[in-house]
Each structure stands twice: as structure tokens, then as C-alpha cells.
């Protein structure tokens, strides 16, 4: 029975993951086969939620008014959680429409710097007027509008309104800042213990950090970059590892961060790795990229574009891997928690809570592993790429 | 893909960039580098201490081996000394014995010689005394025999006769 539940859970997880990524990849929602609904009841319900969610974009775009179903609400919630936000909301009261949290500053550069609190938008209900320019919050984005807040659309139902240059302290930025402060506190305290001499062992929490620093050094930096050169890259590798790890872990707390699950953040991290790799690369690296030694001239010409493409794909894979893993993890955890609401009728309140609790607990434990694993993989691959760029080819080039 | 690009927020990217720079450089200066250096220094210290301990152990072993060697040497020397002493003793004993024997023999031979000479002297004295006693006896006899003139004449005659015969 237990194995059945587990496999059911895994199946549901896979479908949920797929559905969320799918819905991201395709704005024109596609309908899932209707036959799926006739499968096992619980699974069917789950898929149903995903399917309805896929329709949701269309529904939203067409401004279909009316009561939303439970499943739609769930998908709305997940989409909302995964996206960035201008205010930090911990929970909301659906009936009164009240949100409990705090608003964050909006910083726009549009004919000068404009700073105001996001509470002025009233969660998209109000049009904000600053220096004669009107702004409206629409689906998590700020658009320039007229005084009434009219949004015009193109054929694909995307708003065509101009967007101001937005440097707002959004939810993700606030989370990032919070995590940064934590990292500073943690590692400055660790660094302080060594001021009395290297043999002064850290105490308390810092004691748990030291093995992790050693892990980054001994398992990632040294084996990939080499004993002579690793030290130069340690600040970057440690920063990236602990930033990703901590953001991933905090993302699993009820604070509800989804920083590493946003493409901007992973893109920035990947670009950093790319820049560091290119700028620390030695002669051999460039030679291998543009004029591969040890192969005939036509092959050299053939290989150069492939090598260049490879160099670009590496950071791209870093970006997508982290983004997709964390997004999928968050979607599945939210989906499983949503079982409590979606399957209330089918299983009864106690049954739905029990199953939702059991599955999501199991998945959160898995996500803790993923949180570490993704931080590890990102840092590991970064050091691998750096290691490839700085590697010395002492052996005869003709043997390639 | 469309949605992915739509989700890309330049503001978030910008802040992430700034924050990452801050973490890498500021924390790098105040935390990462000191931590990495301290860990390295500690490891070097441990490695050095281990090497030193290993050296000390080796030296101890060497010292012990040296001690044993010295002890063995001393023992061998002692044995040699004892052996030598025994040999010397034996030699001395043998020598003394030989010398004693020689001295004894010499003394015996001397004593023998003395005895011989004493014996000879005694014999000589005895001979002289015997001769003197014989002479005295002879004198007394002659005095008795030649107490009258006739006997004297007879003897002279006899002697004269003997001379004639010669």
C-alpha cells in the first residue's frame, strides 16, 4: 500500500512538474487529453487541476468573468507564488479580500526616478499617478497607462502598453537582500573565529558552516580547478554555493521565497560563471575553441563554431537547470498541499488533509535534498567550467 | 519560451547582479578569503605537526636503535674484557706455575750441589782426620816399636835392603 502511494505520489509529481513547465513554455494553452480524466480518481483530480490551469491563461486573457473553481484558484495561487511580486504577502483572506503582509518600495526610472510604495497599487485595483504619468499593476507587471488604466492587447492577448524601467524592490529582491544579510551574519561570524588564529575552532552555528566551506573546497574547487589555482575562485564559488543553497532552503519555509526559481536570478548567476570562465581562460582554452590542435584543417574550421556554441550552451544549461528544478519543486509542493482543498469532497476533510500532509511532507524532504543538490551542481559545474578554462595542457598537443 | 522571456525581470536581474558582486567582493575580503586562508593555515599546521611527530617518532626509534647498539657494544666489550681477564689470569697462573717449578728445580739442584760439595768436604776432612789419626797411631806404634835401639837398627837395615832392591 505504501509503495502504491509512493508511486502515485511520484506519478502525480511528474505530471505536475510537467504541467507547470508546460504552461510556462507555452502561453497558448493546450488541452490535455480528456481521457486522462477517466483514470484513477485521485490522479484524475490532480491532472484535472493542471488541465484547468492550462486553460487558465486563455480564460484570463479573454477576461472571462465569474466564479473560479477550486482547481483554478489552486493554479492561480501556484502561478502567483512562482512569479515575482511587488508586495510580501504571507497569507490572504479570500472572503474579505484582505492580504496579510507588507508592501515593498517600487522604484521606476521613467523621466526621472519615481519611488513609491506598492500599497498605492492596492494589488492592481488602483492606477497610480506620479508626475503626470499613470501606472497600473497588471498580472504582476507595471505598465504605463492613461488615467483610467486602460490596457490594450495584441492578438496573443499580451498587453501592448509600454513598461517603465523597473528597479523595484520586489518580493524576490527583498528575499535576496534578506538572504544576503543572513549570509553576511553567518560568514562574518565564522571569519571572526579565525582572527584569533587558525587553530581557534569555530563555536556554535559557525561550526556547522566550516565543514560546508571545506566541502566546497575539497569536493568542488580543488578536484576541478586544481590545487594551484583554486584559491582565486573560492570567493565566487563559496558565494554562489551558499547563496543558492540558502535561497533554496528558505524557499521551502513558509516565507515562500522563489528566488532561485526565477529566470532573472539564474540567468545572472549563469552569466557570472560565463564571464569568470571567459576572463580567466588561458591561451590553451582559446586555442581549443578557435583552432583545435591535432585535427585536420577542415575539421578545425568545423569545430570552431561547435566549440563556441558549446561555451554558450554551458551557462545556458546552468541557468535552465536551476530555474526548472526549483520551479518544478515549488509547483509540486504547492500542488500537493492543494490536495487538501481539491480533494475535500472525494476523501473527506480528514482524509484530504492526511494525504496532502503525508505527500507534501515527503516531497519537502525530497526538496531539501534538491535544494542542496542544485546548489552543489551549480557550483560543481561552475568550477568544472572554470577548471576547463584554466587547465594547463602540459602534454604534447599532437596527441589530441 | 515566450512566457519565460516575459518572466525575465530586468530589475531583479539588476539587483541580483549587484548583490552577487557585493557578496563576492565584500564578503570575499572580510570572510571568504580569511576563512579559506585560515583553513589552509590550520591544515598546514596540522600537516606540519604530524610531520614533526613523525620525525620525533623516527628519531626516537633511531635513538632506541642507537641505545641498543651501544648496549650491545658495551656488552660485547664487557665480554671481551672478561675473556681477556680470564686469559690473563690463566696465563699468569701458568707462568707462575712454570716459574715456581723452575725456581724449585733450581733450588733442588743447588741444594744437591751443596750437599755434594759438603759431602766432598766432609769426606776430605774425614780423610785428613783419618790420615792424621793413622799417623798418630803410626807414630805411637813406631814409638812403641822403636823404643829400643836394636829395633831401630833392624828397621834401618830393612829399609836399606828395600832401597837396594830398587
TrEMBL record, chain A:
It is found in: Cell membrane; Membrane. The chain crosses the membrane at residues 173-191, 236-257, 263-281, 322-343, 355-378. It holds the Pfam family ATP-synt_A. Its main location: membrane. Keywords: ATP synthesis, Cell membrane, CF(0), Hydrogen ion transport, Ion transport, Membrane, Signal, Transmembrane, Transmembrane helix, Transport. It is a multi-pass membrane protein. GO terms for cellular component: plasma membrane; proton-transporting ATP synthase complex. Residues 1-25 form the signal peptide. GO terms for molecular function: proton-transporting ATP synthase activity, rotational mechanism. Belongs to the ATPase A chain family. Key component of the proton channel; it plays a direct role in the translocation of protons across the membrane. PANTHER family: ATP SYNTHASE SUBUNIT A. This is ATP synthase subunit a. It comes from Myroides marinus. The gene is atpB.
UniProtKB/TrEMBL annotation, chain B:
It comes from the Bacteria. Residues 36-91, 139-166 form a coiled coil. CDD domains: ATP-synt_Fo_b. It is found in: Cell membrane; Endomembrane system. The chain crosses the membrane at residues 12-32. The keyword Membrane applies. Keywords: ATP synthesis, Cell membrane, CF(0), Coiled coil, Hydrogen ion transport, Ion transport, Membrane, Transmembrane, Transmembrane helix, Transport. GO terms for cellular component: endomembrane system; plasma membrane; proton-transporting ATP synthase complex. F(1)F(0) ATP synthase produces ATP from ADP in the presence of a proton or sodium gradient. F-type ATPases consist of two structural domains, F(1) containing the extramembraneous catalytic core and F(0) containing the membrane proton channel, linked together by a central stalk and a peripheral stalk. During catalysis, ATP synthesis in the catalytic domain of F(1) is coupled via a rotary mechanism of the central stalk subunits to proton translocation. Component of the F(0) channel, it forms part of the peripheral stalk, linking F(1) to F(0). The b'-subunit is a diverged and duplicated form of b found in plants and photosynthetic bacteria. Belongs to the ATPase B chain family. This is ATP synthase subunit b. It comes from Myroides marinus. The lineage of its organism: Bacteria, Pseudomonadati, Bacteroidota, Flavobacteriia, Flavobacteriales. The gene is atpF.
